[in-house]
């Protein structure tokens, strides 16, 4: 091979090698690019999955109140409560203007401001959370801690919520909470919210109970509110005129009466009712006993309450309240008070007789109780089972420390009375006018009662019947004085609470957008 040809061959070989090297470099660079793109895509996919899981949303700050941050789950809880309240009122027939079948964001509540129902629920949620938070911050500053009874209530409430979840067919508590309070809710957050609410409630109640008033302050309140605080002994007969607005023809069909037919029947019914009312009034004025007349006219009167004792506040909305409140009334005096509801073809005549009016100075009772339910319409066997359980609980309590606190704890864990469960079965200021079933009130107001007394009382007069395990805490002030104290303390406490959160501005964060 010639030298020139060998040189050309070497040059060709070198050129090919360079071309191959460039190709390899390009390929390598492409691999790097594809690799980077693949990593980016993978990262984006992971980020999308994390976003869809709610990882970032549920950790975002929805509201900051007095330096404390709250996530969307907490605000959603209060939002759900506000929504449920309006929904309930709407379904009960109240004219709220809210359509439960539409998204709150698509419904304008206030045309002038443009506020939607979503805005309203959100504002209500933030306001409620602000109030609870500021009460708790005040409690923390004072070193206040939730009592053992309060802690027991939180635990019991969590257990009851879990039972509700199972009864509703949910596999676990978490899924039940998410269904009711949004996808960011957890059992841990729910318990924290509940604890905050219970602590605020206990702290507020303890504050109110700690307020005291002088005899002069209570007397002044009484003088301004005699009509509500005095005890009235009276009888009232309700004689009602009403008509059916439909009739049945010969073929059994329902037929509406004409307006003329309705009015004619109504006028006749009114005349008969008025005559009956006049008869009863005349006999009362002549000295007949109200109880005897109630039996004599049982077929003609709509209702009769005879020789009853009530504080004035309990009948303040009645049509005959103004007549009874008149200080000119004399014992035995009678009247007929009329109530016209002609639009519905109903007319009431109230025959009222006053027997006496006074300020009752008898002591009231403070008690704790545990209602062991036998059901709404229990059989003898169910009553017996409830009694056996009640006795067993009482015996178990007696075998332990047998003090008021342990009774309160037992009430939280066992009572069927939801109205007193939170405060350990406590009722204060029990009087003959409190409206409790007769057997319950009689046990409480037995003059021989001593602090620490216990017993069992059968309940056949409530919607939930059964047996009460009773614990007598002690004697309290007369009913009028208890009512006066509660009224003054309640007003003062409301002002105190308002002072804690009025003017406090909740700062809304990005997480508020995840509340819906």
Q: What ranges have pLDDT less than 50 throughout 5 or more consecutive residues?
A: 1-9, 42-53
- Total E-strand runs: 15
SS summary, helix count: 16
Instruction: Going across the biggest sheet, name each strand in turn.
Output: 8-5-10-9
Main β-sheet, in a few words? Answer: 4 strands, antiparallel
Please tell me what the overall shape is. globular
Structural class: alpha+beta
Range of strand content: 15-25%
Task: Give the end-to-end Cα distance, rounded to a whole number of Å.
Answer: 88 Å
The radius of gyration over CA amounts to: 36 Å
The proportion of residues forming helix, as a percent range, comes to 40-55%
User: What is the mean predicted local confidence, pLDDT?
Assistant: 90
Describe the protein's architecture and organization.
The structure is a single chain. With 516 residues, the protein is an alpha+beta fold. Helices cover 51% and strands 19% of the residues. It has 16 helices and 15 strands. The strands form 5 sheets. A 4-stranded antiparallel sheet has the order 8-5-10-9. It has a 4-stranded antiparallel sheet with strand order 12-11-14-13. A hairpin with a 5-residue loop joins strand 13 (454-459) and strand 14 (465-478). Helix 3 packs across helix 16 and helix 7 (215-224) packs across helix 16 (479-501). It is globular, with a radius of gyration of 36 Å. It starts with a helix and ends in an 8-residue tail after the last strand.
């Amino acid at each position: 091979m010639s030298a020139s040809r060998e040189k050309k061959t070497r040059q060709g070989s070198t050129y090919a090698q360079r071309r191959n090297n460039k190709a390899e470099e390009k390929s390598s660079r492409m691999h790097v690019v594809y690799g980077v793109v693949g990593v980016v895509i993978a990262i984006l996919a992971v980020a999308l999955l994390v976003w869809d899981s709610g990882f970032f949303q549920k950790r975002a700050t929805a509201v900051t109140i007095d330096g404390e941050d709250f996530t969307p789950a907490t605000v959603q809880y209060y939002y759900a409560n506000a929504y449920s309240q309006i929904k309930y009122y709407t379904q009960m027939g109240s004219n709220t203007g809210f359509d439960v079948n539409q998204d709150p964001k698509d419904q304008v509540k206030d045309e002038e401001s443009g506020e939607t129902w979503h805005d309203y629920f959100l504002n209500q949620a933030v306001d409620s959370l602000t109030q609870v938070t500021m009460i708790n911050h005040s409690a923390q500053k004072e070193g206040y801690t939730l009592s053992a009874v309060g802690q027991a209530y939180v635990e019991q409430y969590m257990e009851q919520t879990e039972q509700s979840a199972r009864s509703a067919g949910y596999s676990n508590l978490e899924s039940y909470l998410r269904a009711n309070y949004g996808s960011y809710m957890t059992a841990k957050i729910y318990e924290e919210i509940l604890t905050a609410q219970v602590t605020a409630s206990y702290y507020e109640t303890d504050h109110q109970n700690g307020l005291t008033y002088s005899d002069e302050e209570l007397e002044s309140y009484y003088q301004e509110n005699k009509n509500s605080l005095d005890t009235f002994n009276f009888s009232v007969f309700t004689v009602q005129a009403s008509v059916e607005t439909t009739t049945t023809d010969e073929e059994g069909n329902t037929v509406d009466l004409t307006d003329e037919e309705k009015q004619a029947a109504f006028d006749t019914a009114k005349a008969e009712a008025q005559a009956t009312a006049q008869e009863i009034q005349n006999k009362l004025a002549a000295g007949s006993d109200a109880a005897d007349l109630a039996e004599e006219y049982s077929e003609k009167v709509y209702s009769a309450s005879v020789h009853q004792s009530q504080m004035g506040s309990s009948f303040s909305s009645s049509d005959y309240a103004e007549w009874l409140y008149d200080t000119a009334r004399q014992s035995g005096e009678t009247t007929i008070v009329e109530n016209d509801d002609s639009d519905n073809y109903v007319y009431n005549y109230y025959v009222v007789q006053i027997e006496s009016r006074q300020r009752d100075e008898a002591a009231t009772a403070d008690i704790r109780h545990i209602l062991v339910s036998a059901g709404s319409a229990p059989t003898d066997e169910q009553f017996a089972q409830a009694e056996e359980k009640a006795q067993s609980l009482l015996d178990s309590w007696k075998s332990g420390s047998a003090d008021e606190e342990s009774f309160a704890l037992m009430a939280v864990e066992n009572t069927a009375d939801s109205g007193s469960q939170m405060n350990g079965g406590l009722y204060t200021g029990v009087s003959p006018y409190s409206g409790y079933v007769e057997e319950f009130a009689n046990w409480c107001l037995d003059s021989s009662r001593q602090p620490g007394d216990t017993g069992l009382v059968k309940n056949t007069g409530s919607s939930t019947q059964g047996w009460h395990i009773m614990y007598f805490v002690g004697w309290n002030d007369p009913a009028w004085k208890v009512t006066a104290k509660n009224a003054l303390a309640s007003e003062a406490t409301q002002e105190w609470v308002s002072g804690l959160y009025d003017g406090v501005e909740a700062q809304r964060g990005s997480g508020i957008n995840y509340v819906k």
